[in-house]
Amino acid sequence: MKLPLTGRLLAASLLVASFALAPLTSAMADGADKPKVALVMKSLANEFFLTMEDGAKAYQKDHSADFELISNGIKDESDTANQIRIVEQMIVSKVNALVIAPADSKALVPVIKKAMDAGITVINIDNQLDPDVLKSKNLNVPFVGPDNRKGARLVGDYLAGKLQSGDEVGIIEGVSTTTNAQMRTAGFKDAMDAAHMKIVSVQSGNWEIDKGNAVASAMLNEYPNLKALLAGNDSMALGAVSAVRAAGKAGKVQVVGYDNINAIKPMLKDGRVLATADQFAAKQAVFGIQAALKLIKHEKVDVDANNVIQTPVELVTQP
Q: Which of 58, 113, 235, 302 has minimal CB crowding within 10 Å?
């Protein structure tokens, strides 16, 4: 029986720490001749990554003769040390490929080098590793994912159409050391600057509901004329919606997000959230797995000049 989403989120947060360092014999007992692909995600308390995991598992089930899948994640978005330990365990377990959504764009590079030195094929998804740090280590790691700046610009442009020139807005950023947080903030800024909005504050909400709520509450208190909150993901947007309601400003302060998780859809429908961006969580890991399997078989992977395999991102508004 499949648990409801809230139950799965709780189970994931309780079990992830112990599972991350537990023996993986059951996952690797069968199909010793098949490639073993490790999917290492960020916080499994975030619905986005649970959806990503579901998509990867469904794909493996349909292609069970082609590869084994080991999936894992961390307890929260900033648990970088535990993600490093997971990757180290994957190295010891001698997986053939690592598909990783790094919690930090720089801090994960040394352990990824260690994995590649051990002969493991590495594909980067969701949050792009820092190109300069990769270059300093002489590493070539393809990134499979959307143009986060473009996606955020789409959301920001739509929001701008609902505001007046000169309106005050605040940006709730993800973990500031991650490339996707930086790119989404840049996309929001592109849209706000083009529409002549006044960005009064940019603060990190660590990708999380509670921190997003705290940041939004502080902004609403400090800037009473605030007209909109642009959240770098939907978890932080959920926190912002609660803050707007608590401040008695529902309908007066617009909220936008990014990811199009299921929890945000009722809010899109009733207007509590104006817009989000869909980067197709269920497919994102699959795109990475497909690229990894090609590289394992020494097949060509089509990347652009920046070593990127672009995946879709689309604006989502009220249905």
A: 302
